[in-house]
Every structure is written in structure tokens, then in C-alpha cells.
UniProtKB/TrEMBL annotation:
Catalyzes the formation of acetyl phosphate from acetate and ATP. Can also catalyze the reverse reaction. The record marks 180, 241 as: Transition state stabilizer. ATP binds at residues 14, 208-212, 283-285, 331-335. This is Acetate kinase.
Length: 399
């Protein structure tokens, strides 16, 4: 079975074509700058050199059509016929409380995704666009929605409720939903395999640290708490997001600066975090380089980020009554040895011991704690696309 995995963003479409017989990636790529100048498709077949196609890409329909044409192209394609695509798996950011697992897409599912789009206005509408385009271009192919929020639907109400008037939860669904669920689920499963222990017997804390960042407490294979909330803004300090702040700051700054709610929202989501504190960049590599040149604001930004990761990990150790393994994943988690070392150094009370030589690695699956460490610490590259493909295969195979 060959499955096309699509992740449709506001101005981009990321994709992978995966052969589920051996879970190999036949091709992958990204269409960027959809609807704006300098649109480009970067297409990478597994067995050939990557290609770059630059042309006007006015909308997502044109983008996905270009993806299919690239997959079928005689020179750099990997398919002989479009019918070789057996199904399409879509990343959908927000499923609200309705979806606790992946699901076959039909008209009712599309309506439900539309109904919760006000909870993820920057993501769900574009996810829906990808679904509708595939309905037109691949109308006889089954499609599956895989939700970022689904994995966290096992949280107890004490973890997902906010201390606001209860009617806001009943009327508007205001609660903690959490995100990056597909990533947290994947690395937890890999941790179980690497430790050769059943997932049901493990307490794992997964740290998905990238431009967007979240931490999840996974007890017995189930998410019991996670750092992101109603939206991806809550929780850790991120590339451009502020994370946890005193909510009274919002009206205070708005009044002082004469800001609208939309302007304040933009500041918290797009101008804060590493970028806001360092004044340099949202990319941790740039901030780390500046800190190495004795830039004090850059150093403060890194210390804040690492401290807050450790603080959440400590809180989740308490929430689960212990921890067997801590996992670092995503761009920062997989590649930034300083962050991993700083976080572990802040968790010495757990008798975690870092293997400095093993930690001097980038982007590979590796145990970075010593043999006598009381808690195992892993770096595990995430693979959300494979998780989406697996869920899609399971659902489609049952049809």
C-alpha cells in the first residue's frame, strides 16, 4: 500500500509518499510560498537527486496538483500511474473533543473539523483545503484525518480544565487540548522498543522542542498532561511564542501601547519567545551563536528556555509519581546538545547522569544517559509522517 501524507499549511504543503510494505519513503518534499511571489516546489525522490521547480503557484489546488505531477514525472517521479496512490493521510491540527483518534474522512468529519476551526484558525482551514483539493483530484481514494490533539484526549479533567467559570467550557469548549500528539505518541512507542519494556509499564516524559515546543507526561502509553493548551501558545517559551505568562500582562500592555487584540495576539505568537528576548532570531542556532559571542540577551533567552523545559519535566515527574525515561525530539531536541545538557543539569535531583560523549550527537536515535543513571534519557528523531501513514493504513485496511 502506497500512502500520500499531506500537511497543508497557510502557504505551504509538505508531503511524503510512503510504501507501507516496508515503510520506506519513496519521495518527499515541500511546496512553499503558495499564493505569493517566488513560489517553489522542492521534490526529493528517494533514489535520485532532489529537484527544485520555481513557478507561480496561486493556491493549494495548484500546489497539490504539482505534487502529484512530480510524483508521476518520467524523470524524477516514483509512480507510473496515479492509481498507485492507495490513500491519503492528512495532518489536522485541531480535532476538539470530538476526535480521540484518527478517522476516515467523510462529509460529517469535514463539518466537525469546520466547527472547531475557531480553536485553530491559523491551521484547520488550510488542513481542510488540502482535504477538499484531494477530494477533487483523487476523488475515489480514501482519506484519513490524523489529529494533533487526539493523543491528548486521555487527559483527566483535573489536567485539561481551566479554573474559569465552568459554563465557558460547556459553551465554547475552553479547555486544554494539547498539540504535537502524533510526535509524542511516536517517540513514546520508540522508547518502549528501545527499552524492551511494554509501553503500558512505563512513565515517559517526551520533550518536543522545536520552533514550536511542548512537553507531555505519558503514563502507561497515555497522555495525562501536556504543556500546550487551548491553543499552541500556552506552555514553553518557543521560537516566537511567549508561552506561559501572567494573563494580566495582556490588558496592561494593550493599554500602555494602545494595541488592538489582534496586535497583542501577534506579539505573543510572532514576536516573543527566543526572538523577543534575544532580539536576534527565533532560530535557537542563531541565538546560541550570539550567546557564544557574549551577547547577554541571547544567553538569557537560552537560559530561560532550558530552565522552563526542566521545570515542566519536574512537574510531570510529580504528576506521574516518577519517571522511567525522558525523550528529546524535534529540531532543538534532536540537534542542540547544549539544551539537552542544561536541562539534565537542572534535573540532578533525579539522579540522572549524562553521557557527554553520547550527547555530542545530532539528529540520531541514541541513549545519552549513563548506565548507572536512575532515569534513561534518549534522543529520538520524530517521524510524524510515518505515524500518519500507519494510522491511515490501519483505517483503510479495515474498509
Amino acid at each position: 500500500m502506497k500512502i500520500l501524507v499531506l500537511n497543508s499549511g497557510s502557504s505551504s504543503v509538505k508531503y511524503q509518499l510512503i510504501d507501507m510494505d516496508n515503510e520506506s519513503v519513496l519521495a518527499k518534499g515541500v511546496v512553499e510560498r503558495i499564493g505569493i511571489t517566488d513560489s517553489v516546489l522542492e521534490h526529493e525522490p528517494a533514489d535520485r537527486e532532489a529537484i527544485v521547480i520555481k513557478e507561480d503557484i496561486p493556491d493549494h489546488a495548484a500546489a497539490i496538483k504539482m505534487v502529484i505531477e512530480a510524483l508521476l514525472n518520467e524523470e524524477h517521479g516514483v509512480l507510473n500511474d496515479i492509481d498507485e496512490i492507495n490513500a491519503v493521510g492528512h495532518r489536522v491540527v485541531h480535532g476538539g473533543e470530538k476526535f480521540a483518534s484518527s478517522i476516515l474522512i467523510d462529509k460529517e468529519v469535514i463539518k466537525e473539523i469546520e466547527d472547531v476551526s475557531d480553536l485553530a484558525p491559523l491551521h484547520n482551514p488550510h488542513n481542510l483545503t488540502g482535504i477538499r483539493v484531494c477530494n477533487d483530484l483523487l476523488e475515489d481514494k480514501p482519506q484519513v484525518a490524523v489529529f494533533d490533539t487526539a493523543f491528548h484526549q486521555t487527559m483527566p479533567n483535573r489536567a485539561f480544565m481551566y479554573a474559569l467559570p465552568y459554563e465557558y467550557y460547556e459553551r465554547y469548549g475552553i479547555r486544554r487540548y494539547g498539540f504535537h500528539g502524533t510526535s509524542h505518541k511516536y517517540v513514546a512507542q520508540r522508547t518502549s522498543a528501545l527499552m524492551d519494556r511494554p509501553l503500558e509499564d512505563l512513565k515517559i516524559i517526551t520533550c518536543h522542542l522545536g520552533n514550536g515546543a511542548s512537553i507531555t507526561a505519558i503514563d502507561g502509553g497515555k497522555s495525562i498532561d501536556t504543556s500546550m493548551g487551548l491553543t499552541p501558545l500556552e506552555g514553553l517559551m518557543m521560537g516566537t511564542r511567549c508561552g506561559d505568562i501572567d494573563p494580566a500582562i495582556i490588558p496592561f500592555v494593550m493599554e500602555k501601547e494602545g494595541l488592538t487584540m489582534a496586535e497583542m495576539d501577534s506579539i505573543m505568537n510572532k514576536k516573543s519567545g527566543l526572538l523577543g528576548v534575544s532580539g536576534i532570531s527565533s532560530d535557537s542556532r542563531d541565538v546560541e551563536a550570539a550567546a557564544g559571542e557574549d551577547n547577554k540577551r541571547a544567553e538569557i533567552a537560552l537560559e530561560m528556555f532550558d530552565y522552563r523545559v526542566a521545570k515542566y519535566v519536574g512537574a510531570y515527574v510529580a504528576a506521574m509519581g516518577g519517571v522511567d525515561a525522558i525523550v528529546f525530539t524535534a529540531g532543538i531536541g534532536e540537534n542542540q546538545k547544549r539544551t539537552r545538557a542544561d536541562v539534565i543539569n537542572n534535573l540532578k535531583f533525579l539522579n540522572i547522569k549524562l553521557n557527554k560523549e553520547a550527547n555530542n550527537s545530532r539528529g540520531k536515535e541514541i541513549l545519552i544517559s549513563t548506565e548507572d543513571s536512575s532515569v534513561k534519557v534518549f534522543v529520538i528523531p520524530t517521524n510524524e509522517e510515518l505515524m500518519i501513514a500507519r494510522d491511515t493504513q490501519e483505517i483503510v485496511s479495515a474498509l
